[in-house]
Every structure is written in structure tokens, then in C-alpha cells.
Design a protein that fits this description.
Order of helices and strands: HEHHHEHHHHH
Structural class: mainly alpha
Distance between the termini: 9 Å
Strand content: under 5%
Radius of gyration: 15 Å
Largest sheet: 2 strands, antiparallel
Number of strands: 2
Strand order of the largest sheet: 1-2
Helix content: 40-55%
Shape: elongated
């Protein structure tokens, strides 16, 4: 998980797959209501992890209306391919950024990123987290902006 020396491209298929796998907590190939509740419950207050908000997230992405978000649906939302949703990928990623930016300073700092990785099931040492922040164009003290986070996630 250490990005040191790795090249990146924005919103590559492999980064979308990785993001999907983080959200698919039980590894069954689909994101369920329980998967999202577990994910958001570790980062945010009650406004993000509420039943209605999570239900809305599933509803927006679940184009076949089976109650789950499969990878293809996830990919469509993040790439903004849904009808009338030209900025879908950016909107979803901005929401994720806000969840990770616990102190609301507009940057994801070392502890924010480390906490996110741990909650997502990835153990990262301090050096890995510092390398990720540098990869995103940030510094160890100030953290990384939204654009920088996109660079990190695209690895």
C-alpha cells in the first residue's frame, strides 16, 4: 500500500476497483446497506451515518434496484455516466473527502488518512501515510487537499 515511486492516472479502473473493495466490507462483490453503515460509522457523526442518508446513497447508485451496488453501478456513478449526472464522480469523491477531513480544515492530514485506512481495513505505517501525502502534493504537517487525495486514490 506504499505509493512511493508509483505512477498514477486519475480515476483508473484499478483505483475504482480498490475503492469498491474498501466499501464492500464483507467481500461479497456488492456494496450493501450494512457495508456503507459500517464504513461511514467509523468516520462521521450521525448526520452521515443515518439510515436515510445511507439508504439514499444506495438508491442513487442501485440502477437495477436490487438493493445493492454492484461494481458496474459503482463505476458508472463515479465516472459520472448516469443520465443527468455529469459530475457524479467528483461529487461522490468530495463527499468521501469531507468524511475523512474530520477537523474540516479542507485538508486530509496524517491522522485523518491513517484513521481512514485503518477503518477501511488497511494497516499503514506512519512512513506509508507520509509517502501518500507527499504523493498527493501535500506536506506532512498540513496534509493533502481534495485534488491531492484524488492523486493518492488513483494509484
Amino acid at each position: 500500500m506504499c505509493p512511493t515511486g508509483t505512477s498514477f492516472q486519475t480515476a483508473s479502473k484499478s483505483s475504482l476497483r480498490s475503492a469498491f473493495q474498501v466499501l464492500d466490507a464483507d467481500g461479497d462483490g456488492k456494496i450493501s446497506y450494512d457495508d456503507l453503515r459500517a464504513f461511514y460509522g467509523g468516520f462521521s457523526g450521525p448526520e452521515t451515518s443515518s439510515e436515510d442518508v445511507i439508504g439514499s446513497m444506495i438508491s442513487v447508485a442501485d440502477s437495477n434496484k436490487n438493493g445493492y451496488v454492484e461494481y458496474e453501478e459503482f463505476e458508472k456513478v463515479l465516472n459520472g455516466r448516469k443520465k443527468g449526472n455529469k459530475n457524479g464522480r467528483i461529487g461522490v469523491m468530495e463527499d468521501a473527502f469531507r468524511v475523512m477531513d474530520k477537523d474540516g480544515d479542507g485538508k486530509v492530514g496524517h491522522e485523518d488518512l491513517k484513521s481512514y485506512l485503518k477503518c477501511a481495513g488497511f494497516e499503514a505505517c506512519d512512513e506509508d501515510v507520509k509517502a501518500m501525502i507527499r504523493l498527493g502534493g501535500g506536506d506532512e504537517n498540513g496534509g493533502v487537499t481534495f485534488e491531492g487525495l484524488l492523486k493518492i486514490l488513483a494509484v
